[in-house]
Amino acid sequence: MTFATATLATTMETNQTLQPSMEEKVDLLRAIAHMDRVKILLHLIKNGSSNVNDLVGSLGIPQSTTSQHLNKLRSVGAVTNKRHGLEIFYSIHSSYVLDIMSTMFAGEVTPEQIEALKSIAHEARIKLLLKILDEGESNVSPLIDHVGMAQSSVSQHLTKMKSTKVVSTRREKVTIFYRVNHTGIGKILVRLFG
């Protein structure tokens, strides 16, 4: 574990004075937004500390793939590991992970949920969503000013999030207004970035 990862994990867990950066939080979302990683995290939440063999047996994910996913999750501070003899046990290391998992994946995990999470794992999209949440709804003009991007870039980000049902639109004459359509995403954004 690198110093930066250890710092991220510690600050995310204890929520002390040093807050993880926007980039570190986006990396966490990006890492979680994978079906196998979600299954691993849900297993760790439900069953507590587990080794790779426990995860392989329970989830049916090949051992090498499971290890790669655990390394990715550890690199962003989502999980931690402890050695007991020859075995390494993994557990949830971040309260942010618990919040994300309980908000997004309370029931059955669907590919649509994973895609929604993937679609927000981008700094510009998070800034757009936070502005929309703050306003209740917004058209493109204030969003362009808020993120300082070209209209075409803002429109592309909004189109991507609309395709995953994170945002929805309504038209008022020629103006299109965007609003956050996914309650879970809104709660996650407020918790992580609010």
Concise summary:
With 194 residues, this protein is α+β, with helices and mostly antiparallel strands. Helices cover 63% and strands 13% of the residues. The protein folds into 2 domains: 3-106, Arc Repressor Mutant, subunit A (Orthogonal Bundle); 116-193, Winged helix-like DNA-binding domain superfamily/Winged helix DNA-binding domain (Arc Repressor Mutant, subunit A, Orthogonal Bundle), CATH 1.10.10.
Helical stretch count? Answer: 11
Low-confidence stretches: 1-17
Count all strands and give the number.
5
User: What proportion strand?
Assistant: 5-15%
Give the ordered list of helices and strands. Answer: HHHEHHEEHHHHHEEH
The CATH architecture category of the largest domain equals Orthogonal Bundle
CATH homologous superfamily of the largest domain - what is it? Winged helix-like DNA-binding domain superfamily/Winged helix DNA-binding domain
Portion of residues in helices? Answer: 55-70%
What strand line-up does the widest sheet have?
1-3-2
Compute the average pLDDT.
90
Which structural class is indicated by helix and strand composition?
Answer: alpha+beta
Taking the alpha carbons of the first and last residues, their distance comes to: 28 Å
Write down the Rg.
18 Å
The dominant shape is elongated
> Sheet with the most strands?
3 strands, antiparallel
CATH topology of the largest domain: Arc Repressor Mutant, subunit A
Indicate how many domains the architecture comprises: 2
Q: What is the CATH class name of the largest domain?
A: Mainly Alpha
